[in-house]
Amino acid sequence: MPKTPVFLSGVRLSRGLEERKEILQLLNDGGYSVVDLSDDEMAKLHVRYMVGGRPSKALQERLFSFEFPESPGALLKFLHTLGTHWNISLFHYRSHGTDYGRVLAAFELGEHEPDFETRLNELGYECHDETHNPAFRFFLAG
């Protein structure tokens, strides 16, 4: 977890990849350490809405992104299937009125991790472990 200030910035480019490389080089030349999150979907879909939400103490949590059909009851199915054996330490759901809903959630699993993996399989929704994602580590992890 960084002890120095960390900034998340979005920039609209007119010249695409070439311009992005120029900006990154200028920042590096200026002595700034840069992590380019341009291709990080989790950062674009969730983290940009959640910056500043770091917990006050370190948590032993795993972070997952989920994608599921946007239909009545889909979010409820998600919550019911995962059950109540672990603490949900982070939760972000944003409906864009599209065919798929996206959830970012962190769980404190402890000794229940094998059961959690079973529940993920039962759920049947696409999911990705984002625990080591740089955007999570920089802006949200405890």
TrEMBL record:
The keyword Lyase applies. Its EC number is 4.3.1.19. Pathway: Amino-acid biosynthesis. GO terms for molecular function: L-serine ammonia-lyase activity; threonine deaminase activity. The keyword Transport does not apply. Gene3D superfamilies: Biosynthetic Threonine Deaminase, Domain 3 (3.40.1020.10). Its cofactor is pyridoxal 5'-phosphate. CDD domains: ACT_ThrD-I_2. Keywords: Amino-acid biosynthesis, Lyase, Pyridoxal phosphate. GO terms for biological process: isoleucine biosynthetic process; L-serine catabolic process; L-threonine catabolic process. Residues 62-132 form the ACT-like domain. InterPro entries: ACT-like_dom_sf (IPR045865), Ser/Thr_Dehydratase (IPR050147), TD_ACT-like (IPR001721), TD_ACT-like_sf (IPR038110). This is Threonine dehydratase biosynthetic. It comes from Klebsiella pneumoniae subsp. ozaenae. The gene is ilvA_1.
